[in-house]
Structure formats: structure tokens, C-alpha cells
Amino acid sequence: MFELKTIALFAITAIAEIVGCYLSYLWLKQDKSILLLIPAAISLSLFAWLLSLHPTATGRVYAAYGGVYIFVSILWLWGVDGVKPTWWDLAGGLMALIGMAIIMFGPKHV
Fold first, then answer.
1. Residue range of the domain that includes 70
2. DSSP 49-69
3. Residue 55 phi/psi, 5° resolution?
4. I need a surface site. Which of 26, 27, 34, 66 has the fewest CB within 10 A?
5. What is the pLDDT of residues 28-54, one digit of tens each?
6. Which residues have a Cβ under 8 Å from the Cβ of 2 and sit 6 or more positions away?
């Protein structure tokens, strides 16, 4: 159960980060309203807060979170950008998730 909660928290964290960055991108590169920076700032603040909820060393959390971020970004590519991932994208995302699992759930005592 701990593992599922951790992965779910990482996924929600990744969505918060991606949304915040995406809204900023829309303003910067697609000439959308500057008002998008308000929900972008809220989303990025939520992202930082969500990362703080993990009960382990921050360096380990940041490293493992990176793997989930990669995988969720590929899903974003497909779902929001409308670009179908290649098998290489999916394989890389799966490897990133495996890396996250090793970092977060592997033995901590040497």
C-alpha cells in the first residue's frame, strides 16, 4: 500500500509541475493571456508542497520523482499534445519508472 500511495503522490506532483510549466509556456510562446501565470504559480506552488509530503531524504525523493516525471510527461505528450509516443518513448518511460522503484523501495540499509 505504501508503494501505491508513493507512486500516486509522485504522479499528482508531476501533473502539478507540468500544468504550471505548460500554462507558463502558453503565455510565453503562444501569446495566451498573462492571467495564465496565476494558475501556473498556484500549480507550481502545489508541486513544491507535494514534494515535501514524502517522509524520506529530499535527495532521494527528488531523484525518484524524476523517473515518474519522465513517465507522466510522455503521457502528457500523448494526451494533451496529441503526439503518439514511440516505442522508444514508452521503453524510456518504463525504465525511468523502474529506476524510481529501485530508489524508493530498495533496501536502505547497507
1. 2-105
2. HHHTT-SS-HHHHHHHHHHHH
3. -90, 25
4. 34
5. 999 999 999 999 999 999 999 998 887
6. none
Q: Which residue's C-alpha cell is 495564465?
A: 36
Residue 77 lies in a domain: yes
Show the cell assigned to 40.
Answer: 501556473
* Whether the predicted pLDDT of 91 surpasses 80: yes
One-letter amino acid of 2 = F
* Length reported for the chain: 110
- Could you tell me the three cell numbers for 29? 510562446
Half-sphere exposure of 103 (CA within 13 A, CB side): 21
Report the 10 Å Cβ neighbour count for 92: 15
**pTM, entire model:** 0.84
Q: Outline where DSSP puts E strands in 1-110.
A: none
Number of folded domains that form the chain: 1
